[in-house]
Amino acid sequence: MTDRLMAWAEQNNIKMKLVPVEYIRAMPADLERFRNETELDTRQHNALHSNINNIGKIPKKTRSVLIAACSYAADAGGDNHIIAEMKAAGYTCRKGVGLPLKRIAVQSGLADYGRNNITYVLGMGSRLQLESFLTDMLCETAEWREPVMAPMCEKCTLCLDNCPTGAQRKDRFLLDSLKCKKCWTCSTCCPMNAAFL
Ligand code: SF4
Ligand code: SF4
């Protein structure tokens, strides 16, 4: 990323990671395995199918993927600013469409998964918007880890205990999205959000 873009992101509490596009192009094998090994409801199954298809549509000239986390309070024009800054520095840049943003954010080290399957970013909590950008900026290597749960969740079950609908289950990581009423109790009771809500 350019120095100017990084300085602007710092000022606006926007966190970003750049990863080689090859990491993203390799994701469908893992996503397929996950789909085959996990009990999914129809919505989750369709979302994964769509993610896999959209990864296949990433243009050939793409060299890297920028993943950005923007707090709800940040300037709504952040996406356009990122694209404009990248273009001003001589790179192509466009928004990614239909990529598995949470998983990319976690694997890149930008975010951690909570037990509630929400993503948390250091210094931001979970009240954030994730976006991806496809660029031709060269990025040969970057952090890329297994999609693990945040260390704080190991000894905590607050979100699980407080879910009013049973959408969170002890026996699996993914929510039952058909039971989830989007009440966000699991988010507001979470200690990782204590400083941000
Ligand atoms: S409430 Fe506890 S277990 Fe749930 S996401 Fe937050 S820290 Fe993790
Ligand atoms: S949003 Fe509400 S219903 Fe959905 S998982 Fe969280 S607590 Fe449960």
What's the short story on this structure?
The chain has 197 residues and is α+β, with helices and mostly antiparallel strands. It has helices at residues 3-11, 21-25, 27-37, 42-56, 78-88, 101-107, 158-162, 185-188; strands spanning 14-20, 64-71, 93-95, 112-113, 119-120, 128-135.
- Which structural class matches the secondary elements? alpha+beta
Q: Tell me the number of strands.
A: 6
**What is the number of independent domains?**
1
Strand content: 15-25%
H/E topology pattern: HEHHHEHEHEEEHH
Mean pLDDT rating: 91
Helix proportion of residues, in percent?
25-40%
Strand ordering within the main sheet:
1-2-6-3
Radius of gyration: 17 Å
Low-confidence stretches: none
The gross shape turns out to be globular
How many strands, which pairing sense, and closed or not: the largest β-sheet? 4 strands, antiparallel
First-last Cα distance: 30 Å
Number of helices: 8
